[in-house]
Amino acid sequence: MSKAPVITVDGPSGTGKGTVCSVLATKLQWHLLDSGALYRVVAYTAERRGVALDDESALAAIAVSLDLKFENRGPGEDNKTILEASDVSQPIRSEKCGNAASRVAALPTVREALLQRQRQFRQMPGLIADGRDMGTHVFSDAELKIFLTASAEERAKRRYKQLKEKGINVNLRDLSADIAERDRRDKERIVSPLKPAEDAIVIDTTMCDVNAVNRQIFSLVQNRFADLAAFV
Ligand code: C5P
Q1: What digits encode the pLDDT tens for the residues 163-206?
Q2: pLDDT for res 162
Q3: Percent of residues, the chain, with pLDDT higher than 90
Q4: For the residues 120-138, what does the mean pLDDT come to?
Q5: Rounded distance from Cα 209 to ligand 1 centre (Å)
Q6: How confident is the model at residue 79 (pLDDT cuts 50, 70, 90)?
Q7: What is the residue-averaged pLDDT of the chain?
Q8: What is the pTM of this model?
Q9: Distance from the CA of 39 to the center of ligand 1, in angstroms?
Q10: How far is the CA of 195 from the centre of ligand 1 (A)?
Q11: Could you tell me if 185 and 132 are in contact, meaning their C-beta atoms sit under 8 angstroms apart?
Q12: N or C end of the chain, less CB within 10 A?
């Protein structure tokens, strides 16, 4: 049987990947993988169990054994994240957890431990995969690869608005510094660093609102998957 088609959407935080992916998955009725949530849940579990963020073997053991499930909450929304029967959707979205996730994500054995789990999301009729290395590594044979960028300033503003809307208290200056630190760590790590795949289409969203980005992506999808032409 042939493999399910995959659309990868990679890029740094604050580029609007999450919203675009959720809308796209709903429109196409495809599965959605929010790979960042996996790294966040590993970091969250480590903190709760008192595991240090540089204890690579303990962190990899957490990554292998996560009892984790995602539930779709509809277009534009994050998935509901259920860890060992508790809803952790809100706590894993904090900046602290995002930062810890990026430290955990730099460890090769943790990435390896999460690889098969991510690939299991590839099921019919298709998958939208949101992350940093979806197109370069996890689904390097994806049918369509998109890489979203935006200026660091614009991304910080968007994250600020998004977190405020979720009731998470943040300060723009701290947030900008956190984002810069996370970008640096994600780009400089040895395994699967953040970069566009050679065959990715790069879209700079600095000057675009979310609807314009969605339209641009829908038209790429329509061109790539002619049989889905009726969906837009
Ligand atoms: O996308 P999100 O902000 O939830 O990701 C949290 C962190 O997880 C990122 O800063 C990055 O370090 C890591 N990550 C990764 N590879 C992915 C997805 C996320 O390294 N595919």
Answers
A1: 888 787 888 998 899 899 889 999 999 999 999 999 999 999 99
A2: 83
A3: 76
A4: 97
A5: 23
A6: confident
A7: 92
A8: 0.93
A9: 6
A10: 13
A11: no
A12: N
Out of 8, 35, 133, mutate this one to test ligand 1's pocket (max ligand atoms within 8 Å of CB): namely 35
Tokens of 226: 């002619």
Give the pLDDT score at 109. 97
Q: What CA–CA distance (Å, rounded) separates 30 from 23?
A: 10
Is residue 16 predicted with pLDDT exceeding 50?
A: yes
Q: What number does CATH give the domain 6-219?
A: 3.40.50.300
Minimum CA distance residue for ligand 1 atom 19: 36
Q: Closest Cα partner for 46 from 104, 93, 109?
A: 104
Kindly give the distance from the C-alpha atom of residue 105 to the centroid of ligand 1, in angstroms, as a whole number. Answer: 7
Distances (CA, A) of 142 to 103, 129, 136, 166, 230: 27, 10, 9, 32, 21
Q: What is the 3-state secondary structure (H, E, C) of the chain?
A: CCCCCEEEEECCCCCCHHHHHHHHHHHHCCEEEEHHHHHHHHHHHHHHHCCCCCCHHHHHHHHHHCCEEEECCCCCCCCEEEECCEECCCHHHCHHHHHHHHHHCCCHHHHHHHHHHHHCCCCCCCEEEEECCHHHHHCCCCCEEEEEECCHHHHHHHHHHHHHHCCCCCCHHHHHHHHHHHHHHHHHCCCCCCCCCCCCEEEECCCCCHHHHHHHHHHHHHHHCHHHHHHC
Q: Residues lining ligand 1, judged by CB closer than 6 Å?
A: 13, 35-36, 39-40, 98, 101-102, 105, 131-133, 182, 186
